Amino acid sequence: MANAIPEKIRMNTTLLEHLAEVAKDAALLKGVLMRIQETPNSSELVTYAPFTLFPTPVPEAVFSQALALQTHFNTLVDKISQDAEFLQDALASTIEVDDFTARLFKIHQQIVKEGTSQSVVCGLNRSDYMLDQAEDGSSSLKQIEINTIAASFGGLSSCTPDVHRHILQVAGQLEQSERILDNNPAAGLARAVAKAWELYGSEKAVIMFLVEEGQRNIFDHRYVEKELWNRNIATMRRRFDDVSKTGSLDQDKRLFVDGQEVAVVYFRNGYMPQNYNSEKDWDARLMMERSLAVKCPDISTHLVGTKKVQQVLATPGVLEKFFPHQPQVVEQIRATFAGLYTLDMGPEGDQTVAMALAAPERFVLKPQREGGGNNFYGSEMCEVLQEVKDGTERTAYILMDKIHPAPVQNVLLRRDAPLQISTCLSELGVFGTYVRKGQDMVLNECVGHLLRTKSSEHSDGGVASGVAVLDNPLLF
Ligand code: ADP
Ligand code: MG
Ligand code: MG
After folding, report:
1. Which of 402, 431, 456 represents a domain boundary (last residue)?
2. Chain centroid to CA 316: how far?
3. Same domain, yes or no, for 345 and 325?
């Protein structure tokens, strides 16, 4: 099995313990921070965000492939977001049974009916991949999903390269240390948000981060905020409840919150059912969507990130519709698609059910949810499928081929966890940003990457859900 731990250190527990201490201090020093679970809304007590002791080897070719694809995925997301008919068709069966997606879709429909008041759109995406390992040891890039709302860790991943550089230096691995890539998604995200602010065209208007109730991961946001303040653009942080209590639209649909005009709403919340505590929160979302403020993302772009849209995109002919004159782009994108299968009512969906029940270890069952920890695997997947397979409830899910990345030995550093070597799996994210004004793509960039690594015991879950930790690729 591949090993991220340098050979001479593997058996040396004393040295590993020493490096772990050095690593935690380096993380604190470099600002790889999180508030503690007990007090998510106070910065009195903070700790390091969980991370790997060593960077994980990633093949250079596959890494470059992922970066090269990002602007195409940006274009794809943006095109779909403007195609109301496609979204309607793709999500029709899902919204009949999934209340959350249905509520989002209702807002989308209302905006389509009323017409958007703002022609500027800002997308901040993160396309996530795993490297599927073939029998011959080669690996191919397979997309897990695209996150089109609240994609996180662009801030903290801007600080982790220096931490790994330092650890490798102390471990006597100078050559490796120098090979750690620079990364600064925070700057790229801010560049897009700043462009959206500029196009809104009011010096005194602010950028509002729409944030969660519990804000453990605030430092990740703070990096982007700081980049904006560096440009003399004011930011503020508000929750749904604040918007609901102090927000309003004037007759030109300008959004005011707490007396301040909002040029851009950057959603770092609003992607899970539990983010909406009451009807008032839903009303606040609708008000923001209706407003003249630029939304990152707007409601239609949010919906493009659903797993159902991902599955529909993988059906023959669909990518061609969005890139009619670019067969090479279609080919490049399609090459990263794993098998994705519909559970819609009908013979095709029936076939999906039968296939999954016959070989559960080959698949993942996914509902339309975000944030990690929502998917079903193995025997649990079978139980869920047995329950829903004969009725329309099954259309709330899609089925996907399970990706098998090569396991790598590493040490996961997490507050209060014992030091141990774990068998790990990694997921590579690529950040993309774009700003469009009317039909004019003003900016379309790939702005950095994120490597997350988790113990292979867990089949699901991200950093925020306490399973994965931050990492860096070491290209080979
Ligand atoms: P979420 O939007 O909740 O992050 P994901 O589709 O990213 O949903 O799934 C969550 C996690 O489950 C991923 O980070 C990955 O670890 C695992 N996972 C998802 N899809 C697959 C797959 N096809 N094969 C293997 N693991 C998967
Ligand atoms: Mg997601
Ligand atoms: Mg994910």
Report:
1. 402
2. 26
3. no
Q: pTM for this one?
A: 0.98
Question: What does residue 97 show for φ and ψ, rounded to 5 degrees?
Answer: -120, -15
In this prediction the ipTM stands at: 1.00
- 346 and 243 in a common domain: no
Examine the domain organization and report whether 236 and 363 are in the same domain.
Answer: no
Q: Which of 399, 460, 471 to mutate to test the pocket of ligand 1 (most atoms within 8 A of CB)?
A: 460
| Cβ pair 464, 371 in contact under 8 A | yes
Q: Provide block-wise average pLDDT over 10 residues at a time, the chain (476 residues).
A: 94 96 98 97 98 98 98 98 98 98 98 96 98 92 98 98 98 97 98 98 98 97 98 98 98 98 98 98 98 98 98 98 98 98 98 98 97 95 98 98 97 95 98 98 98 92 85 98
Residues contacting ligand 1 via CB (< 6 Å): 128, 130, 144-145, 338, 364, 366, 369-372, 374-375, 400-403, 427, 460, 462
The closest alpha carbon to 53, from 174, 167, 170, 166, belongs to 167
Residue identifier of the C-alpha nearest atom 2 of ligand 1: 370
Range(s) of the domain holding residue 281: 2-338+403-475
3-state class (DSSP) for residue 384: helix
Q: Dihedral through CA 198, CA 199, CA 203, CA 208, nearest 10?
A: -80
Domain of residue 384, CATH code: 3.30.1490.50
Same domain flag for 352 and 424: no
Residue 126 catalytic? yes
Within this chain, do residues 35 and 154 fall inside the same structural domain, yes or no? yes
452 part of the active site? yes
How far is 465 from 371, CA to CA, in rounded Å? 7
- For residue 158, indicate whether it is catalytic: no
Please count the structural domains in the chain. Answer: 2
